[in-house]
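Table S5 (text form). Sequence records supplied for joint modeling of the four-component complex.
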Amino acid sequence: MSTKQRLLDAAEQLFAENGFAATSLRDITALAEANLASVNYHFGSKEALLEAVFDRRLRPLNRERLEMLDAFESEAGDNPVELSKILWAFLAPPFRRMYEWGEGGRHFQQLVGRIYAAPIRPAGETFIKQFELVRIRFQSAFHQALPHLSTDELTRRMHHVIAAMAHTMAWGRAFCCLQPTGRPESDVVLQSILSFAMAGMRAPECQPIFPPSSPAVAAATSSGTDR
Amino acid sequence: MSTKQRLLDAAEQLFAENGFAATSLRDITALAEANLASVNYHFGSKEALLEAVFDRRLRPLNRERLEMLDAFESEAGDNPVELSKILWAFLAPPFRRMYEWGEGGRHFQQLVGRIYAAPIRPAGETFIKQFELVRIRFQSAFHQALPHLSTDELTRRMHHVIAAMAHTMAWGRAFCCLQPTGRPESDVVLQSILSFAMAGMRAPECQPIFPPSSPAVAAATSSGTDR
DNA sequence: GTCTATAGCATGATAGAC
DNA sequence: GTCTATCATGCTATAGAC
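The corresponding structure-token record, covering 454 residues in total, follows.
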């Protein structure tokens, strides 16, 4: 394998496990069994290396999402696309791809999961912006499928779906029930997110059931003051 | 305000905005208008400062969660606690407290949201372990309220709820629809998560509806190869 | 393309005066 | 408790031989 690829793999792993700022070029070149100067020769800088790590896998992934949504939309004609299909086009590509990509895919998954919560500035923000384009496109599909929801509430719920996806990506390897290693069981995780997300998106908007009308709420709230 | 408190406030803000590794003691002491040596005098090290930032707010927050759950359980007697109440005890305290704590609370919220996805090692792991105790306690409450769910699926769904909470915390300030600044609207966000989570937790386990049986899935999957 | 050597700088921590 | 000065180390990036 070429030095350039070994550097990408090593950077992918270490950025995912320890974060961007906490990973030094020395760590990366040591793991890649390459020379310290090779990063700047092949990529120009540490930040450019991060962007290269993203570019390698993100482009095909987001293209697959959008192509699948396009296919569902032309299939539906003038009707809105079914909610389950929108969610599938949004969530299935990342999980499926990660398994095709093997070990590197799992590292990338963790890195992407992290970056949703803790953006790396300024290099990682191009990723967030690129993802925003995909999100906007899916938001209009959701809006047609769930026309009764207000725009604000729809946006919030999309973020809840993104949250479940990102959190599973970031923690998948740590909890076996979140991300088993075998290929067939991987769909268990995807299906869990899909079922949860579908029910959540379909929930009626803002039932006034919270806070629960119960004496315990007032009691616990008043006693729970700072010591 | 004392130097110690100013250091805590400054560290809270900068760790939240830029991450732990990317924030230097010089950044912190400059913002706190304190001397560089003051961090090591008052806290001993950068990592100990991070732990102090957590300790200040996390202890009362998790105590409130558990006290509220206790109150609901003794109220319910031998019956399982209603799902809506379990969710309220888990989610309301962090959002309510953040508003009581003002600006510092919002910084802390962002920091906590980040750390769920990108743990800071080794100092930040004590926070994760402390949270795990709370999670296990709530998991058994969820298990009684939703006895038909398998343990693995229940764990996965709890993580989806945690994900929505953490994601909103990390991004709340960036999207106005996720976290408006006014006090009354803050409950809109909490209610959105509660409705979404309640519907998601109650979803039937694993309907075999995915992948959607549609010619578009196969078409998009096969065409979506890497360039 | 790969390597050594190093420039130039920022970092966390500490010693010691006041 | 607060300050200045500084140590020792690690960092990214680059120059230049091969």
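Note: Chain B touches chain A through 84 residues (CB under 8 Å).
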